[in-house]
Amino acid sequence: MATANPNTCPHCGSSNSGANFGFNPQRINDDETLIHDVLFACADCGGEWAAIGYVMIAQRNGGELSKEAQDALAGAVANAEELRIEALDQEGNPI
Q1: Can you spell out the DSSP letters for 60-83?
Q2: pLDDT for 21-62, tens place per residue?
Q3: Can you tell me the distance from the alpha carbon of 59 to that of 67, in angstroms, rounded to the nearest whole number?
Q4: For the whole model, what pTM was predicted?
Q5: What are phi and psi of 80, to 5 degrees?
Q6: What 3-state class would DSSP assign to 17?
């Protein structure tokens, strides 16, 4: 069974991973966007997975989140569905 930690690769168990795409973007301001159901990739094995129910803030310039972004993230987390990890094959289909 895949782990419920989106930062751990469900293919090889590595934590050398990162988010590479998110759905349903909601712009907060010029630097911050709330994204949902994030796709991740592993730098060690090249595996990919979807974190359904995962929300995060994508920033263009880094740094601390604005108060507006923190509030948007808190609201999105409160309304998010239960987190589930879906490992994807090379074509992006669930395994």
Answers
A1: SS-SSPPHHHHHHHHHHHHHPPPP
A2: 999 999 999 999 999 999 999 999 999 999 999 999 999 988
A3: 14
A4: 0.85
A5: -75, 150
A6: strand
